Amino acid sequence: MRTIGNLTSLEGKICVYLASQALGELFLKDAEAEGFVFADGSKPTEKKWESVIIVGKNWTLRYLVGFAGHMAFRQPQAAIGEPWVRIDYRKYIAGEDDYFYKEERVFDPFEDEFHIRELKDIAASDEDGNLHSGEACFLVKGNEIKDMFSPFWEWLREHGFRSWGRHGHYPNVDWVFINVKSKIYAPGMPGMKLADQLFGHAIT
Asked: What is the structure's pLDDT at 126?
């Protein structure tokens, strides 16, 4: 069974990509169970998840911060110093041979058919997440939304919004559903209407 601790034996700076809130929270629980702590001594489950968390060889965790850090993650070949090793945690714990993070996510309607049906059921009946609400849900569209490390996403998190946690981020998708009442957001998904929105059109 693969563990987070196994990653500390890899050469380079280990960056773990977490595609959703559910996966991020799982990672934090797994890390705590293995004895990892954050650099300030906090337990992983006392911290909020972020899309990328750095795993240190001394069994400490830290967030990826700053413009330079985010750019290095996006373009590891241009990073100065030790190489950046980007791990896709979903692939890693699933036992896939190629568990490294890839920038692009190509939408395959056949591959994702079951997932789309599942999301439709969730969107129609989800009570806990409160994303599916025409009374408070907006569809927001803009180029900045394509980049999961842009100030737009940082602003949402800083103001108390949290991910719906049902799916990951599609880099080339430039829209997001935001419920201002429940403070839930869901990145857009190709070919999928996740919720009814106010005004019936996107805000740009």
From this structure: 44
